[in-house]
Write a structure and sequence with these properties.
The complex is a heterodimer of chains A (115) and B (112). Chain A has 115 residues and is mainly beta. Chain A is built from no helices and eleven strands. In chain A, a hairpin with a 2-residue loop joins β5 and β6. Chain B has 112 residues and is mainly β. The chains are: A mainly beta (115), B mainly beta (112).
């Protein structure tokens, strides 16, 4: 089954303790991206990757890191989490191609709480 | 990047047709228009995508006028299970260097 898999689904951590949220897709998509969703603010893009070893900042990249060492995986790293990063996070992927009309496929989300 | 504007919320009753309009005045020539549905605590799910005129699939229709500055998602005969947030997204990552901007979405409430 074609899917985007995020882990964990729920995570509670303390301020300053490094964590990684994993994202994996099995559709051979080149494009992957991370979003956070907060009440009243909708979906905001954190980072994105156009291809392996190619990453760039979205609208809210502060406090986050990503890596794209292989096509299928795109982990989100919080080196020193803070309470304002408490949020619902989504990973998404889509097929490559200029002008290609491939839609985004989203994971089921990771609910992160930083105390 | 094309910015989208949608109504914040809409109410409907079971069995009615629901039309949600999205404005995107600065849509670019190569931009596609995509609609997503999101249930609480789940990722957005693709509903329908179009470039111009009308597109129909098994769950919805998408109407796009000739100037492409707006689009309308039409859900025929909604049921309680259609209660969700609907997002209109304009663009394609590969036409915009990777950045995508989601609007606030429209919260649809279907009542019995």
């Amino acid at each position: 089954e074609a899917q985007v898999t995020q882990n964990p689904r729920y995570l509670i951590t303390v301020t300053g303790k490094k964590l990684t949220v994993t994202c994996s897709q099995n559709m051979n998509h080149e494009y992957m991206s991370w979003y956070r969703q907060d009440p009243g603010l909708g979906l905001r893009q954190i980072y994105y990757s156009m291809n392996v070893e190619v990453t760039d900042k979205g609208d809210v990249p502060e406090g986050y890191k990503v890596s794209r060492k292989e096509k299928r995986n795109f982990p989100l790293i919080l080196e020193s989490p803070s309470p304002n990063q408490t949020s619902l996070y989504f990973c998404a992927s889509s097929l490559s191609g200029l002008g290609n009309n491939s839609p985004l496929h989203f994971g089921n989300g990771t609910r992160l709480t930083v105390t | 990047l094309a910015k989208t504007t949608q109504p914040i919320s809409m109410d409907s009753y079971e069995g009615q047709e629901v039309n949600i309009t999205c404005s995107h005045n600065n849509i670019a020539t190569n931009d596609y228009i995509t609609w997503y549905q999101q249930f609480p605590s789940q990722g957005p799910r693709f509903i329908i995508q179009g470039y111009k005129t009308k597109v129909t699939n098994e769950v919805a229709s998408l109407f796009i006028p000739a100037d492409r500055k707006s689009s309308t998602l039409s859900l025929p005969r909604v049921s309680l299970s259609d209660t969700a947030v609907y997002y209109c997204l304009v663009g394609d990552p590969y036409n915009q260097g990777g950045k995508l901007i989601f609007g606030q979405g429209t919260e649809l409430s279907v009542k019995p």
